[in-house]
# Entry
Amino acid sequence: MKKLTTIVALAFALTACKEEPKTEVQSNSKEEMATAQSHDNWSKNATIYEVNVRQYSPEGTLNAFTQDLQRVKDMGVKIVWLMPIHPIGKLNRKGGMGSYYSIQNYKAVNPKFGTLEDFKTLVQKAHELDMKVILDWVANHTSFDNVWTENHLDYYNLDSLGNLQMPEGTDWSDVADLDYDNPELRAAMIDAMKFWVEEAGIDGYRCDVAGFVPVDFWEAARDSLEALRSDIFMLAEWEDPKHHEKAFEMSYAWEFMHVMNEVAKGEKTIDAFDEYLAKQDTLFPESAYRMMFTTNHDENSWNGTVMDRYGEEGHKTYAVLAYTLPGMPLLYSGQEAEMNSALAFFEKDTIEWGDYSLQDFYTKLLELNRDNEALWNGEFGGKVQRISTNADDQVYAFTREKGDDAVVVVLNFSDQAVNVEFGTLPEGNFEPLLDEVEYNALKSGVELSPFAYHVFHTP
# Structure
């Protein structure tokens, strides 16, 4: 029987409940960090976009999203991550349409989304646009009516009466727990993962609750996928330094999102940002990619919109912070439309796009991540250096430099205007990114309006 005794991961997204279990992040030694996963060159300045297919369009289809790929590309996105596209279980289904993460067949496409050919067309179009496509993969559990339940009950953790059961310690009553002590289950899961690489040409996976599945399985899966192609990209929905040794390029920066939430609620001060960065330096190798975000499908559906959590004015300030600190920035479907609704998880709830009011805002930030070496991912980017001010309890200012590139970021996390004088500012020719404030204006001090944000960059 598989035991949920994973000692890593600070927090992770849930498929069916609002509360996020947390365990302590395990520390790695410097020697262990030296063995961390290397990266393909294309990923060093990549950005990522999460697609909620059901809610993305009125049709809720793969074809409907394919028509929007050029727009997403033009925003500066490199990686398209699709939430699960598989048929959804009907037995013990939650809500009217069920959870994406209740998988009925790992080798099929949800007919409500389209066909396998539709999916292949999406991947082909993305590749023509020089984009990568990764697929959400749910390895820990299946629906109660998954095709495996007909002839392979030995793939599952069963209760004392021989019945399927939901994952231990959760309230995920619509999914049945898989048994990774069974080598045949492992082989079948890897076979299913290989299917999408071979048949559709996808570029990798975002792996749901990766810490619930043994690390050695992910490493074996990676070996099998790399036998098909060498440039597979793997994202873990978890925070475990060991995941970066072999199995995964990138992991969720869940802890940082929670830190931002706590600062926004007044439960922590902005000193927590520095504490987080120092902690990450001791836990993760420099080469580890961390995914930075202010929202995603779980956070939006269960904990509220970015406006709910960061405020009507503050949500953009926190987005600037998340997109300029070390890590790969994630944009979730609808953020560029300033989406101010928590999308229903188990029902049809179409995003209201309007006039894409924040598309220009996010495009500038994503393009800066793509083009300015100081903001590149992992060891390819620059270190954070704080810039002192007379208002360090309210204003977070820093610079990052790499090669000939640099950025200077100034953020007011107060709901009050602040008169700010800076300590030593970097010398150089800096241009404003998001507004018209000139960099030289900082040298004589400036008044920052509530939740003001300024980003300056080398041309």
